[in-house]
Design a protein that fits this description.
binds flavin-adenine dinucleotide; Butyryl-CoA Dehydrogenase, subunit A, domain 3; acyl-CoA dehydrogenase activity; Butyryl-CoA Dehydrogenase, subunit A, domain 2; 15% strand; 10 helices; single chain; five-stranded antiparallel β-sheet; Butyryl-Coa Dehydrogenase, subunit A, domain 1
Length: 398
């Protein structure tokens, strides 16, 4: 049979991109991932390599200097990168979400000004919805922007901003008073352009420092504090206030396919490590892969890798076709992240005591997999989205 997680019907261009990325992952990411991760070191050289390959512009339309590739290509690239090291996929994920939001919702001026520089990686995107007191309940956002003439004044605190310090463009969802009845209709996305770095980076805008995390190291995750921060009304995404929730939810659908792709990448790597180790390690006179209990684990792990990959590809294709894909993206994210946690856990068990040693890659994957159960909406939130969609589609006629 073919190797796991193959995708039928790819174009020559897609195949060439994937083969280049796979080669980069094998040569430039996997050999360095353990050291960089254990040191919580930002992967500067890897990021430069990705810039050179044009990966920051992968989905940016050609008219703005990008490669104009589909969400499917992007998802397959992310799967390859996460197979090497999830943190590297974290560097580009928020960038793609912001590029997507700009491409579909930005004003012509915003697109013209930002997308060409996003394509080269000169402008690097992050997105911010979560706050210290809320993550799932986005409509409850408290950070507020008050209009004063042609400007807005923003006050409040944001939490869990991936690439907070290393980005220079943050799409931030805040509350504006549009007088709408529903809370989510009073939310607006601002495009905050800021310098990279930590501390008070602009008057009224601070990035206190990196949050110390269990895994997903190297990439910076930060708070973002607004204290009387002034920004022009022209920085509103799309130019019109009150549309931010819709913009962000569109971006998050891209993010969910991305998280599913990352989960597939980690699960593939966990399987690769397990299947190799199981043929090397001997107990009771034979390789452990020849004990049926271990062979069956490998069979179940590989089946989960395949199922997750197919669901992820399906969700990406649907979004590319322009169809609503909230249910499929939710399903793909749900199953891929849950399977990833299970496959990683099984690979860890197959490694016996060595899985607990920092010398072995599986130790890192064990700390990375749980994040995927949370990021871009927890499994409970995915089930809420999926069940709502199903009840809409299968409405009772009784
Ligand atoms: C490393 C990292 C990076 C992140 N990066 C970003 C980023 O770049 N930008 C950003 O905006 N956010 C980011 N986040 C935030 C992330 O999106 C949130 O943590 C996530 O949405 C969950 O929100 P919460 O932590 O507030 O949990 P809560 O919403 O408080 O949920 C707590 C628990 O309650 C459950 N729960 C909540 N509501 C319901 C319900 N209605 N029904 C059933 N169960 C429910 C949840 O599933 C969860 O188990 C990041 C988080 C982490 C850990």
């Amino acid at each position: 049979m073919a190797r796991l997680a193959q995708t039928a019907g790819l174009t020559d261009v897609q195949q060439e991109i994937l083969s280049t990325v796979r080669d980069f992952v094998d040569k430039e990411i996997i050999p360095h991932a353990q050291t960089l991760e254990h040191g919580d070191t930002y992967p500067t050289d890897i990021v430069e390599g990705m810039k050179e390959m044009g990966l920051f512009g992968l989905t940016v339309p050609e008219e703005y200097g990008g490669l104009g590739e589909s969400l499917l290509t992007y998802a397959l690239v992310v799967e390859e990168i996460a197979r090497g090291w999830m943190s590297v996929s974290g560097v580009i994920n928020t960038h793609f979400i912001v590029a997507h939001m700009l491409k579909y919702h930005g004003t012509p001026e915003q697109k013209q000004r930002l997308l060409p520089r996003m394509a080269t990686g000169e402008v690097r995107g992050a997105f911010s919805m979560s706050e210290p007191e809320l993550g799932s309940d986005v409509a409850a956002i408290k950070t507020r922007a008050k209009r004063e003439g042609d400007e807005y004044v923003i006050d409040g605190a944001k939490m869990w901003l991936t690439n907070g310090g290393t980005s220079n463009l943050v799409a931030v969802l805040v509350r504006t008073d549009e007088g709408a009845e529903k809370p989510h209709q009073n939310l607006t996305t601002f495009l905050v352009e800021k310098p990279e770095g930590f501390g008070e980076v602009m008057p009224g805008l601070s990035i206190p420092g990196k949050i110390d995390k269990m895994g997903y190291k190297g990439v910076d995750t930060t708070e973002l504090v607004f204290d009387g921060f002034r920004i022009g009304a022209e920085a509103i995404l799309g130019g019109e206030p009150g549309k931010g929730f819709r913009h962000m939810m569109d971006g998050i659908e891209v993010g969910r396919v991305n998280v599913a792709a990352r989960a597939c990448g980690i699960a593939i790597r966990a399987f690769e490590l397990a299947v190799e180790y199981a043929q090397q390690r001997r107990t009771f006179g034979k390789p452990i892969a020849e004990h049926q209990a271990i062979a069956f684990k490998l069979a179940e792990m590989a089946t989960k890798v395949e199922a997750a990959h197919l669901m992820m590809v399906n969700a990406a294709k649907l979004k590319d076709s322009g169809e609503r894909n909230d249910v499929q993206a939710g399903m793909a994210k749900l199953i891929a992240s849950e399977y990833c946690a299970e496959v990683t856990q099984e690979a860890f068990r197959i490694h016996g005591g060595y899985g607990y040693s920092k010398e072995y890659e599986i130790e890192r994957l064990m700390r990375e997999a749980p994040f995927l159960l949370i990021g871009e909406g927890t499994s409970e939130i995915q089930k809420t989205i999926i069940s709502r969609g199903l009840l809409r589609e299968y409405r009772s006629r009784g």
